[in-house]
Every structure is written in structure tokens, then in C-alpha cells.
Amino acid sequence: MATKAAPNRTVRFRIKRCDGPGKPSYWHEFDVVPEKNANVISCLKQIAEHPVTASGQKVSPPVWDSGCLEEVCGACTMVVNGKVRQTCTCLVDVYAPNNGDTITLEPMSKFPVVRDLWVDRQRLFHNLTRIKGWVPIDNTYALGPGPKESPEKQQVRYKLSECMSCGCCLEACPQFQLETNESKWDDAFIGANAISQVRYFNEHQTGKQLKSDRLDTMSEKGGISDCGNAQNCVKVCPKEIPLTESIGAVGRAVTIHSIASFFSRK
Amino acid sequence: MGEKRVIVVGGGLAGLAAAVRIAEQGVPVDLFSMVPVKRSHSVCAQGGINAANEVAKQQGYSEYQHFDETLIGGDYLADQGPVLEMTNYAPKIIDLLDRMGVPFNRTDEGYLALRMFGGSLFKRTQFAGASTGQQLLYALDEQTRRFAAEGKVTMYEFWEFLWPVLEGEGDDRRCVGIVAQDMRTMQIRSFRGDAVIMATGGCGIIFGKSTNSVICTGGAASRCYQAGAWYANPEMIQVHPTAIPGADKCRLMSESARGEGGRVWVPRKKGDPRPGHEIPEDERWYFLEERYPKYKNLVPRDIASREIFDVCVNDGMGVYGENQVYLDLTHKPREFLDRRLGAILEIYEKFVGEDPRVTPMRIFPSVHYSMGGMWTGFEPGDAVPDEPVAHVHQPGETPPIGTEPGHGMKFGAPNNMMTNITGLYAFGEVNFAYHGATRLGANSLLSCIFDGLYCGMSVVNYINDCAPAGEVSQSVYDSAVKQEQDKHDALISASETGIDDPDTNPYTIAKEMGVMMTEASSVVKTGEGLQRCLDGLKSLRERFSRVRLGDGSAWTNQTLSFTRAVGDMLILAETIVKGGLLRKESRGSHYRLDYPERDDANFMKTTVVEFVPDAEDQHRVFYRDVIAPYIKARPRKYGKTDDAKETPKAEKEAATSV
């Protein structure tokens, strides 16, 4: 890394903790001497092995979510120093190069906390069901190849398909709010990632068969009209998915779809 | 008591392919995963998926040659029938994934693009950028979501598998469900299932730092092993030649980097202080190309890993004198790299802070994949030659066996990929089939999906004929739950908030196991080193018997889940080391310095391990002949030059005299 980090320095981790749903939050601070090439996850592992706070209090190891540690699974998303991101790619040499630097870790705020830094993002996957996020193939038997596709179109779809459902775009969105009541999920704003997935599936020749259903969902309460166009989503997307472009594309499709439905109703 | 149902444990490619195929047959599926299935480890697969395709076929390639390559790649340790069936079926899988909407890279005309991969001289790998595994997993995740929305698949995410529920003794013993724990509420309960499919992946975390996800502990496989399922070829662990070493894990740099033209080299001058891109062409040592003029950088992984290890560790020729070599793509156009390898180049950039399009990447081998796994059987197919073919199949020749289903493994036979426990199956990386002693790149996605689709039908046929699990006495389930609840409660009672004594700390014990295993049982092994490791593991198990947890919480106790897995990992680790100690030969990924040659007479055999809980040595090892009716084992050289072993010394002298 270009940044020169001080060797054998101590980094202070401020961690927002919570023992479970409905329990109050509190803070613990830990001092860590980061290993070579440390990231936030390797420091959390050090803390778990030695869960003693900076003031010497023995506490339970913090709980966090992680998976691939290569920024393709989306699990380890947290709020680091006030900004949402994956913690595996959060390099400590960059974030805390000097002795005594502090890194603050909080759970994402738009999803219910399970414990400490681990949140429950089931709503995110529920929203993928809401938009019928699949290609409706007949069956899994050998029926020959799928539709041909131009390389240009493939490049567009590939980019959209890199969405790992991490939820960064939702954390940054002023319109997407915490909703712990599952029965309200279908009326609440669906968020940028699901809208972008609508575009993804509607771009596919077979996926298109459900286009009308998806656009209906987009026209309903919690659909695309709830987007406030703050454009925060695209700024925080770790995969640089063109979310605002998707929102624009789906918005236009919804308009055309509404007009078409209006006339077909007559 | 209701209709028959199937339990699938694990939501990676194998588990999801099985769930979709079985649900499609009208059988309800209960799918268990420690993580939302979309976050399963299959996302980490990068390079692609192999299949004989039309272009390659018209250049002389065939399914049969894919079969032949997979066998020699695995150094003839795989039973041949399932491999034949898989390679014959592979093109169907590509078509299906294509129909599911996987954004495979395309040619100008819109057909599937192809790339080179290790162990072949043909382009036979389909790919979606450099995140093929992610794209394939998402496609199957989407189809699973569709079945879940229709109520045909029930999802249990954040549930951890604890134990298979077995009933009956001897030949009547069968699996009738599982015990699992909700990782949030910590509730432990049983689930009935007429068949159980383990699709729980590999065990890289046993080695501490590997390319694996944090969930790949092998804990589930170890629990099945402890319950009586055989474990096979545990010693066959693949070390991937190209990964970025990190503090928390080693990050994979796909073989596709070499498939797309990436070159591996070190400076000819030992410890050359200049950055890679400033070193002129004639001062670079392309040691793989020099030693393997035919396959060059695309020799199988075990060979590439050993050569890199040799150059760095034995010759001290690593970049900047450290254990690292260059993986160089800088000669390729930026646009080409972004389109075909963008995802992995971004990973490198994010973790190392250098642009691999400008500066050659610095990489080193890392534990990556387990060819070994739960032992599974199969019903042989209808291709029954008098004797295995000794003739080396040449491109363009008519293959001696056709591609119709059922030649290698009988279609729909209930025992395909069933373990030695009736009703308990193992699919994907967690079984030992297909890859022998080394897996070829881009064959793993294939074997996972093949198991799910092809052997999924075997599971359906099995449950159609088995006695319903619904009629099994509740006491069978209750006693399995009690066993797991007791283990859980014992761990909770061994907790004390914040305790961090390294002697009994589960995280410290795991870390020490990882170091020990990587040192003794990865790229190069010796009998002495393995024995020392086995002794070390024994002392870790003793310490583990006194383990103390820093968290006694009854809610979302991650420390408990991890600690339980550490105990199971230690047991599996012993099988890996013991298997390696007893295999006194070198074959594929298993390289014994003290037995450097392959020994077909004594070891063209599957290592099978059975757990004997009350014995002094709990791992009873026995051997089964490899079922090899089709192709006779050949020497595995990959065209290595005869003078290759001399080369490094000559180079080294030349280099040091500069």
C-alpha cells in the first residue's frame, strides 16, 4: 500500500455492541497491535482471542458476520468510521496508519441487530422474491443452449449480476428505513439493489417473461416512486454497479408499462 | 406422517443444484445453511467451468478427452465411472446454466466465449468474467428462491448441522434426519428426512489461512465421520499455486489469470531489488515455461505449487528474497483484462494496493481444496471393457466410449454418491469422488452441479422405495437431540466471560492447528514431519478437552459454534495427517519427500478411514482398490523437460554471479 503505516503501533477499536434484539447498545474499546497486512477482520479475530477492553475489563468476544473475506459474499458489511462498507477490504494500514488511531465499528442501522455487529438482512432476500428475481426456465433437463447474447449486452448484465446483496446501498439510502415488522416489508421501499435486479432480469430474453409482474411490483407502494433520487446508493456500492442508471431505466419502463396497462384495461 | 421429504445440508452449488432438481420432482426439500445461501463459499470460485464444447470438439477435443485429462490430472486416484459420467454430462450443465441466465462471456457473434485452463491443451472452459462461481451460485440461488416462493423448498438459513440422526444397526442402519441448531436463538432440534444430502464443502480452515471462507471448517463432515460415515483420501488436499497471502486468509488469484496468458516468473538475480516492471525481459526466469515447454504455465496445480515452492524455499529465488513469485499480466491490453479478469484484478488492487495491469502480481501457494472427503459409492454403468485402455487417446480419434447417459455410472441408481450409511449422501466438495489426488481447475463447479442434478435423481429414487422416516420412533430423534444438547451445555458450562488463557483458548488452539497443518501437510510432506504433526494434534486435543469459552451467552453464541467446530476440525485433521503418513508414495497433491515416486502396486488405492470412538487410535485406516476399468494409469509428466531438475542450479549460479 502506498500509505506507510507505523510498525508495532496500537490501534484503538471502538465497537458498538448489543446483546440481542430489544437490548440497549453500548460501546467497548479494544487496543490491537495489527498483524502484517491486517484488515478489520483480522483485528476482530485478535480481539476474539483476547477479549479484554482497553480499560482491562474482560468481556465476551464481539459477534460479527463474515464469509469469503474477498468481497464477493457481502457478509462482513458494517459501518466503519461512519461509512458503510465491507470490513474484509478495510485495510488497517490505510484506516489507522498511526499509533493511537481509532477505528469505529457499528452494525448496519437499516437491519435489525442480531447481536453486536451482526445484523439480519433477510428482508433483502425477501425483496428479491418480491420482484420475482429469477429466469423462469421450464425445467432443469437438457433442452439445448439458452438464448444468444451480444457481448455488449453480456457486459451490462454481468455488471448488474455482481450485486452480492450486501446492503450498502440500502444503508446509505434516506428512503430505505429499518422495518422489523415482516408484514410491512411488502409495502416498504424496496431499495436500489432490488430495482437494479429488476433491470437485470428484464434484460434477459427468458427473464423478460416476468417483466410485466416485476414492473407491477415496481409501480406499487414501496416501488420505484419511493426513490427520492438522493443518489447515495451508487456512491457506496462496492462493486460500482450503475444503480442510478438502473433506477432510471426501470423508471422509464414503469412509465411505459403504466401507459400500456392503462390502454389495455379499456 | 406427511409425505416423504429430503434434507439438504449446505446451500452452495451442490446443495442448491440438488434442492432444485429434487423439488422439481415434486419432493419437498428442507434446505439448511449456516449462512444465507447466496453467501456460500461457491461465490469464491473464479475461473470457469469445464465442458467439451462445440468449438473444441471440432478441433479434435471430446468428452472422452476431458475424462482422460481429469483422470491423469487426479493421478489416477479417482474411481473412473463417476468421472466418465460427469465429463459426458458436462455440456448439458453448461446449456442449463446458460438457460438460467448466467452472464457467461460471449464471442462477437454471441456464442459462449472460451478460455484455456490447466491440464488441457484445448479451450474447454466457459466463464463469466473472473467470478464464475459467484455467477453460477446466483443462478441456482434464484431458481431455489423460485421454488421457495412456491413452497417447494423450505429454507433454514443460519441453522448449523450438528449430527445425522441414524436408526437401526448393522445393515439396517440408515439416516432418517438431522439435528441442527439455530445460530441466533441457539435452539437445538431434530428434523425428519427420508434422505439427507451433505453438501457442506471443504475443510480449508483446518489449515488456518487458506483460500476458503470462514465457514469451511469441515465441521459437518467431521460430525458425519464421527457418527460412522467413512472418510476417504483425507490426505489429498490441493494447494493452489497463486494466492495473495494476508493476515486473515490467503486470497485466490484464479488459474484463469494464467489461462488468459499470465506468466509466472522470478528475477534471475537473487533478491533483485528492482520492482518487477523495471526488470528487463532477459533478466526474468520463466521457470514453469522453461521446465514444461508444452503446458507452460498451465500445468496442474500441484505441479505449479511445488515448482513455486521449490524456487522460493529451496533455491531462495523468491521476489525480494521472500516467499513470493510474480504472476504477470502486464503484457495484456487493459481492456482485455478488465473484460475477462476484472473481478480478480480488483481484489488484488484492493488488498495489495497495486494495479496488476501495470505491476506484476506477487503471489504464493495456499491451501485451496479438498479432493478427499466423505466416502461415497456408485452403481457402475453399462460400459464394461475387457481391460483398461493403454493407448493414449489422441485428439481427433473416435473415443472408445460414447456420451449417452449411464455408461460410467448407472442413471438414477439409489446408491450413487450415497455414503456407507444408507440414506446419507454427500455431494460436491465434501465427497471424495471425481478429483482423485489433484483437481483440475474449473472442474469443481462441474462436479458440484453434476452431483446435484445427476445424483439428485438417485436420492428421489431412494426415498420412493425406503420406509418412511415419518414412522420412525420419536425417541430416536430425542436421543440425538439430547446428545447434542449435552455437548452444547458442557461447552456453556466451560465458559467464563472474557477468559483468554492461551492454553485453553479455542481461537489459539485453532491457530496453532493451522500453523502445524500448513507446515507438515501441504505442499511437501515427510514421514517425520507428519508424525510430529500427529503428536502435536494429540496435544491440541488434550488441551481442547479442557477448552474454556469466553462467552457463555444463550443467544447467538458465535464462540460456542466456533469452539464446537474446532473440536471436530482436530479430529478431521488427524485423518488428514494419518492418511498422509501411511501413504508412502507421492501422487498428485500428496508429495512425500521421502517417497517421491508414485507407487501404483501398493497405493493405487483409496484411503478409507473409519472412526472408532473407543479405540486408542480412533482412526481405523483401510484401503480399497481404485475402480479403474477404462483407462490404464500412465506416468504423469506433462512434458517436463529431462534437464529441468538441473536448470535451477545452473540458473542460480548464473544468477548469483551477475
Radius of gyration of chain B (CA) equals: 24 Å
Q: Give helix and strand order of chain A, one letter per element, not per position.
A: EEHEEHEEEHHHHHHH
- The helix tally of chain A amounts to 9
- CATH superfamily membership of the largest domain in chain B, which one? FAD/NAD(P)-binding domain
Major sheet strand order of chain B: 13-12-17-16-14-15
Count of alpha/pi helices of chain B = 17
- The count of DSSP E runs of length 2 or more, i.e. the number of strands of chain B, is 21
Poorly predicted ranges of chain A: none
Summarize model confidence as the mean pLDDT of chain B.
Answer: 95
Report the end-to-end length of chain A measured between terminal Cα atoms. 64 Å
Unreliable stretches of chain B (pLDDT < 50, length at least 5) are: 646-658
Largest sheet of chain A: 5 strands, mixed
* Beta-strand content bin of chain A: 5-15%
Please list the strands of the largest sheet of chain A in the order they lie side by side.
2-1-5-3-4
Described by the principal axes of the CA atoms, the overall outline of chain B is globular
Mean pLDDT of chain A: 96
Q: How helix-rich are the residues of chain B, as a percent range?
A: 25-40%
Q: Tell me the major beta sheet of chain B.
A: 6 strands, antiparallel
